[in-house]
Design goal:
The chain has one domain. The protein contains four helices and two strands. The chain has helices spanning 2-19, 39-60, 64-85, 93-111, and strands at residues 25-28, 33-36.
């Protein structure tokens, strides 16, 4: 359950941050730093921070050599799907082949 929540929050964080990225303003001067984030970007950042905390809990209780490739692979696939459905980005044949390889690799890692 924590793992699924991690994948959802991590992917959602990146997608929300992308949605709000047009309103981001960052300026670094000699004596000041200015940063402006949109509400959507802040929500994305919160999702990403919570997902990081979940990730720390997950890897502390799991075999790292198994959970890290699975976590990264599933997050990549969730971002691929989210970018298609939410952001309207196109998925090409290479993306589909890559996603299939990730799924196949995840199955192999779980069998090992």
């Amino acid at each position: 359950m924590l793992f699924i929540l991690y994948v959802i929050l991590s992917s959602l964080g990146i997608i929300l941050f992308k949605l709000g990225s047009s309103d981001i303003y960052f300026k670094l001067a000699a004596n000041s730093i200015s940063l402006k984030l949109s509400f959507v970007s802040i929500l994305g950042l919160i999702c990403y921070i919570v997902s990081f905390l979940l990730w720390m809990a997950i890897i502390s209780k799991s075999d790292v050599h198994i959970i890290v490739p699975i976590g990264l692979g599933m997050t990549n696939i969730a971002i691929l799907l989210g970018s298609y459905f939410v952001l309207g980005e196109q998925i090409n044949m290479y993306s589909i082949i890559g996603a299939c390889l990730i799924i196949f690799g995840t199955i192999i890692i779980n069998k090992g």
